[in-house]
Design goal:
It is a multi-pass membrane protein. By secondary structure, the chain is mostly helical. It has a single domain, classed as MetI-like (MetI-like fold, Orthogonal Bundle), CATH 1.10.3720. The chain is built from 10 helices and no strands.
């Protein structure tokens, strides 16, 4: 039986995973080609159409200035996803580098890095992100850096644990005994064999990063208005909950759907790895 048929049967037996893939694919399309999903202007509204409920012409309704909420959610995917990816990359790169060096070199370097990691993990990630973005200033990039730094401790700890497991392997000892320098052993043997679980953690962190980026955007630390960002869209509808519930509900459901989809895909990847 061909691999394509096996893959189709696998997906049909796991509809939740298939739905999660569809959600993430839709978000990627919204981020890179929003015109494929909507032709509405996310910035300029039509005052005569303000606060209209969901309909065929406005799937998510309109806001207080007549802007199409669906268009703003679609165009907001670009900013939110960019911040999320940058945050995960910062956490992955910085955390993995620290864990790799600490686990491989050991000694005082390991002790110093792990104490820093302990301090970072002692503070809730959202509070640490809030403190960092307050120091860095407003903006999507600063939000992403703050969220990434707040989440790097988990990557450092996991990478260190994997490096400690791998460096005791026979192939690592053979490479060192044959005269390969420690940088070569690290890059050719230790890192490739320790990277798998860290990559799975990166997919799990995508959901967390979406929530934290949206939370900081909700508090007003993200992109400046009228640029659409998912957290800012939720915040913008707070004063209209009684009369225009859709302004907050649909952006909030979008964030929830992306987080759940990312977590579902990460569990599947973890299952495949193990």
């Amino acid at each position: 039986m061909s691999e394509a048929v096996l893959s189709q049967r696998f997906l049909l037996r796991r509809p939740g995973l298939l739905l999660s893939g569809v959600v993430l694919a839709a978000v990627l399309i919204a981020a890179f080609a929003p015109a494929l999903l909507t032709g509405q202007d996310p910035i300029t509204g039509i005052p005569s159409e303000r606060l209209q409920g969901p309909s065929l012409s406005h799937l998510f309704g309109t806001d207080e200035t007549g802007r199409d909420v669906f268009a703003r959610v679609v165009h907001g995917a670009g900013l939110s996803l960019r911040a999320t990816v940058l945050a995960v990359l910062v956490a992955f790169a910085a955390g993995s580098a620290l864990g790799l060096l600490a686990g491989f070199r050991g000694g005082w370097l390991d002790a110093v890095v792990m104490r820093i990691v302990d301090v970072l993990q002692a503070v809730p990630a959202i509070l640490l992100s809030l403190a960092l973005v307050t120091a860095l200033g407003f903006g999507t990039t600063n939000v992403a850096i703050a969220v990434g730094v707040a989440n790097l401790a988990a990557f450092a700890r996991l990478m260190r644990a994997e490096v400690l497991r791998v460096r005791s392997g026979v192939f690592v000892e053979a490479a060192r005994a044959s005269g390969v320098r420690w940088a070569g052993v690290l890059g050719r043997h230790v890192l490739p064999n320790a990277l798998g679980p860290v990559l799975v953690l990166a997919t799990v962190t995508v959901g967390t990063a979406v929530l934290e980026v949206s939370a900081l955007s909700f508090l007003g630390f993200g992109a400046s208005p009228p640029s659409p960002e998912w957290g800012a869209l939720v915040a913008g509808g707070r004063n209209f909950l009684a009369t225009a519930w859709w302004m907050t509900t649909f952006p909030g459901l979008t964030v929830a759907a992306v987080v759940l989809a990312a977590n579902r895909v990460s569990r599947a990847l973890d299952g495949e790895r193990s």
